[in-house]
């Protein structure tokens, strides 16, 4: 089946190409590895001072991420409702894009000041996840229901490819540093600068090609916040009476705690628990991204044949297996093998989750408000998941113990996915019986 509006769809997918460099370079590889290296000293070890607080550097990283996601999760519902009522979600997407890109470039100046780095990192995270709700909300506008799995996978594939290209450029700078007479920090700091420029630059394609969204409210009778809260209330009333959607969101909430946490702490886990060198970690994450492209496309094809919920259930079971193995791994080779499996299930579950939600929501102009429920669910899940990971490490002294909590999160999410699948099948059977009854009585 051919894609309609291919220019618009590719323009939409280019935002994944643009902003995924943050997720890979800033959250997953260069920044956490560099942050741990810079803030580990012979005098204090891995203890760092932040606003007068003495704390482990890896725990501070987890808490900073958790705070950023919690803050944006609280703000997004009303912002998305305002965007729907005024039809200006592209402007919100621009704002968060530039906030994130500028904050990434600011990390170029991070050499020793941990407080400055953490604040810039938090702002970059807010820019990244704040823009996603408005970006994701275009999916049901540009793609028909039967193609949403495939279009969602295209977006993630663009993101993985783009982020890998910039990652390789940064990796090349690291390897060429001695020949270029750079000090050890300069290649990494230049990579932070490139992330901001890449993000803001390629996003211009998206801003040019995406259509303007019609406002959900034709005549305005109140201020932006008044209408925003009314819009939020209206969408919430619709979500409450959609049993499959509710069950899916609950499952998504719990398994996202696990998925996103693994993605964000994987490189720190390899550095601290297995003492893997920086070059090997970066190469490993590049491999994960490449494998994730196959995962996203493969899951999209399988879901078209077998349905979204069965494939999501299988994927969550694989994630549980990943976490069990992560608790026991001891060697670098075991870490690399596990990383390949993470890549396969990472691309698939992210892409399929987004398209599943896009299929379950009704036809509506309130796409940003509906997707705020999806994105806020994910943001709170990340905040709780990453905080739990850091808190358990803080209490126990080992990141391996934190992995056990992720197994619990995935298991609860799995139960809710089974509940959503059962409810969907019951509703389908009920419609079939009703149709048969009508056919025999007319």
Question: Key features?
Answer:
mainly alpha, 15 helices, two-stranded antiparallel ribbon, 442 residues, Growth Hormone, Chain: A
Q: Please state the CA-atom Rg, rounded to the nearest Å.
A: 22 Å
Counting structural domains, the number is: 1
CATH top-level class: Mainly Alpha
Strand order of the largest sheet: 1-2
Q: Assign the structural class, choosing from mainly alpha, mainly beta, alpha/beta, alpha+beta, or little secondary structure.
A: mainly alpha
Q: Might you state the CATH topology name?
A: Growth Hormone, Chain: A
Ends apart, CA distance between termini: 36 Å
The low-confidence parts are none
Spell out the helices and strands N to C. HHEEHHHHHHHHHHHHH
Q: Care to count the β-strands?
A: 2
Mean pLDDT: 84
User: Which strand-content bin applies to the residues?
Assistant: under 5%
Q: So how many helices?
A: 15
Note down, in words, how this protein is organized.
With 442 residues, this protein is an all-alpha fold. The chain has one domain: MFS general substrate transporter like domains (Growth Hormone, Chain: A), CATH 1.20.1250.20. It is built from 15 helices and 2 strands. The protein has a two-stranded antiparallel ribbon. A hairpin with a 2-residue loop joins strand 1 and strand 2.
Short account of what is shown:
The protein is mainly alpha-helical and about 450 residues long. The protein contains 15 helices and two strands.
Q: What's the SSE blueprint?
A:
Blueprint lengths: L5 H23 L1 H9 L8 E4 L2 E4 H30 L2 H18 L7 H23 L2 H4 L5 H29 L9 H24 L14 H17 L2 H31 L4 H29 L1 H21 L3 H29 L6 H30 L2 H42 L2
Antiparallel strand pairs: 1-2
Helix pairs in contact: 1-2, 1-5, 1-7, 1-8, 3-4, 3-5, 3-9, 3-14, 4-5, 4-8, 5-14, 7-8, 7-11, 7-13, 10-13, 10-14, 10-15, 11-12, 11-13, 12-13, 12-15, 14-15
């Amino acid at each position: 089946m051919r894609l309609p509006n291919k220019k618009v769809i590719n323009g939409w997918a280019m935002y994944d190409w643009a902003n995924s460099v943050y997720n890979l370079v800033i959250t997953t590889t260069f920044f956490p590895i560099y942050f741990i290296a810079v803030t580990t000293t012979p005098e204090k070890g891995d203890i760092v001072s932040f606003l007068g607080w003495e704390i482990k550097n890896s725990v501070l990283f987890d808490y900073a991420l958790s705070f950023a996601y919690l803050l944006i999760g609280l703000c997004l519902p009303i912002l998305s409702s305002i965007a729907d009522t005024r039809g200006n979600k592209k402007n919100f997407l621009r704002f968060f894009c530039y906030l994130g890109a500028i904050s990434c470039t600011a990390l170029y100046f991070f050499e020793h000041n941990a407080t400055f780095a953490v604040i810039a990192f938090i702002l970059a995270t807010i820019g990244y996840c704040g823009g996603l709700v408005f970006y994701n909300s275009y999916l049901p506008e540009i793609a028909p229901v039967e193609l949403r799995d495939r279009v969602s996978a295209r977006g993630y594939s663009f993101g993985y490819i783009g982020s890998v290209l910039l990652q390789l450029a940064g990796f090349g700078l690291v390897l060429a540093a001695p020949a270029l007479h750079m000090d050890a920090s300069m290649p990494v700091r230049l990579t932070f600068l490139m992330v901001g420029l890449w993000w803001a630059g390629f996003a211009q394609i998206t801003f040019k090609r995406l259509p303007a969204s019609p406002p959900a409210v034709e005549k305005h009778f109140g201020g932006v916040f008044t209408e925003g809260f009314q819009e939020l209330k209206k969408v919430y009333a619709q979500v409450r009476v959609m049993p499959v959607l509710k069950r899916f969101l609950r499952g998504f909430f719990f398994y996202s705690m696990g998925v996103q946490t693994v993605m964000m702490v994987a490189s720190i886990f390899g550095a601290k628990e297995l003492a893997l060198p920086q070059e090997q970690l970066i190469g490993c994450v590049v491999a994960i991204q490449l494998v994730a492209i196959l995962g996203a496309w493969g899951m999209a094809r399988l879901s078209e044949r077998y349905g979204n919920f069965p494939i999501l259930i299988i994927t969550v079971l694989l994630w549980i297996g990943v976490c069990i193995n992560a608790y026991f791994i001891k060697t670098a080779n075991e870490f690399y093998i596990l990383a390949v499996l993470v890549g396969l299930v990472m691309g698939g579950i992210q892409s399929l989750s987004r398209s599943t939600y896009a299929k379950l929501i009704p036809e509506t102009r309130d796409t940003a408000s509906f997707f705020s429920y999806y994105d806020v669910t994910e943001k709170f899940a990340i905040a709780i998941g990453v905080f739990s990971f850091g808190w358990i490490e803080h209490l126990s002294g080992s990141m391996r113990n934190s992995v056990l909590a992720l197994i619990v999160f995935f298991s609860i999410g799995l139960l809710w996915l089974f509940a959503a699948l059962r409810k969907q099948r019951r509703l389908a059977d009920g419609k079939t019986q009703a149709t048969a009854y009508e056919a025999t009585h007319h």
